[in-house]
Amino acid sequence: GAGVSQTPSNKVTEKGKYVELRCDPISGHTALYWYRQSLGQGPEFLIYFQGTGAADDSGLPNDRFFAVRPEGSVSTLKIQRTERGDSAVYLCASSLAAGTAEAFFGQGTRLTVV
Amino acid sequence: KNEVEQSPQNLTAQEGEFITINCSYSVGISALHWLQQHPGGGIVSLFMLSSGKKKHGRLIATINIQEKHSSLHITASHPRDSAVYICAVKLLYGGSQGNLIFGKGTKLSVKP
Questions:
Q1: Contact in structure between B11 and B112 (CB atoms under 8 Å)
Q2: CA A1, A33, A68, A86: dihedral to nearest 10 degrees?
Q3: Containing H/E element for A45?
Q4: Which of B85, B78, B61 is CA-nearest to residue B112?
Q5: Which residues in B lie closer than 8 A to residue A49 (C-beta atoms)?
Q6: In terms of Cα–Cα distance, which of B91, B29, B28 is closest to A48?
Q7: Does B32 contact chain A (CB < 8 Å)?
Q8: Three-state DSSP class for B48?
Q9: What is the pLDDT of residues B10-29, one digit of tens each?
């Protein structure tokens, strides 16, 4: 596609439920990043993929969070047993390569856990 | 202390005014991004720079590596410029290659 696409744009879920957030990067971009932005804060790093593998998952807050990118393109961020504190905007970005290549951001998924 | 500090936190301007948003950082960086975020969350990358100055339309971004400081300028501001402007840096050492550190953003409101 022309840009980074994230679906859904909004997700409301009940506490304790499982959710999946999808990111479709720009075609050909090997690097893919997930960030989380809480209200009034700047985005914070969650995980970074280079191809199919997670090069750095040090930002994932706990083991309820998991992300995959099985074919090196689309990525899914999975959250188990959601908590109200998980409510945030989840941002995805991709770049042609890692290092100094410019990152392009998606529109984000606004997750609300009620 | 945050590694990336932006000022001001909030800024209200009249249409047509010249606007400056500042970003200071305390770490060695390989690049600095200026991002624009509209209500609803979507982020648009405005500039990525590692030295000097870049210009795109009414937007100008400068960076001084020695002083660890960058500025984003908007000339002839317009209400459609109203958004949150975020500075983000890519670490030169440490972290992963994908790790951007973000400032908290500057909320700009341009009144007609």
A1: no
A2: -110
A3: strand A44-50
A4: B78
A5: 98
A6: B91
A7: no
A8: strand
A9: 999 999 999 999 999 998 88
